[in-house]
Design goal:
The protein is mostly helical. The protein contains 13 helices and no strands.
């Protein structure tokens, strides 16, 4: 605790690294929360938030990140960064429900981010076997970016078991206008059609 109190509040990375010796402390989250409370809103760069995620993950202290995600969001220049990082962290750990939870928080903070909606759709479709949620997320992505190939592919894939014809119709425009034109679809989607 004495180490944390001695750090300048504007030295975010020094602060993060200093917590390494405190990871066994039951008060770690309280101590970090107190220090984060002293940091001005929107003053910490994305790279520093990404470093904090990697750092706490390497120490097996992901609970610090999840407990304080809203506080990390508040101090970041881009409030969505922590949610994006946690979504990917849990995705890599095969903790798909937690990944979806942070994907939803990401889209709450950045509702016009078509890539975030597409990733969330893919997560629901491939890893959570929830094609309805996948289609809903893909539809949000397509409302933002109507020609998003990724969102079209995820939506088509999510619909395929229930409605193969509709699935094919979604990707049909991506297959080229005339014979000999280059298809925008990856090989696995050409097989569906």
């Amino acid at each position: 605790e004495a180490i944390l109190n001695q750090l300048p509040t504007n030295s975010f990375l020094n602060f993060i690294v200093s917590t390494k010796d405190l990871t066994s402390s039951p008060r770690l989250i309280d101590l970090i929360s107190k220090q984060l409370g002293n940091i001005k809103t929107g003053t910490i760069e994305d790279g520093d938030i990404m470093y904090a995620v990697d750092f706490f993950n390497s120490l097996n202290c992901v609970d610090v990140l999840t407990e304080l995600a809203d506080e990390f969001s508040r101090i970041s220049e881009y409030p969505s960064t922590i949610f994006n990082e946690l979504m990917h962290l849990f995705w890599e750990k095969n903790e798909y429900h937690k990944a979806a939870e942070y994907g939803r928080k990401l889209t709450d903070v950045e509702p016009f981010n078509s890539s975030a909606w597409t990733e969330l759709a893919d997560l629901y479709n491939v890893h959570l076997a929830n094609p309805q949620a996948a289609v809903e997320c893909a539809d949000f992505a397509l409302a933002i970016e109507p020609n998003s190939l990724g969102a079209l592919i995820v939506k088509s894939s999510a619909l395929y078991e229930q409605n193969p014809e509709e699935s094919r119709n979604i990707v049909a425009p991506c297959q080229g206008e005339s014979r000999g034109s280059e298809s925008r679809l990856p090989l696995h989607m050409k097989i569906i059609g």
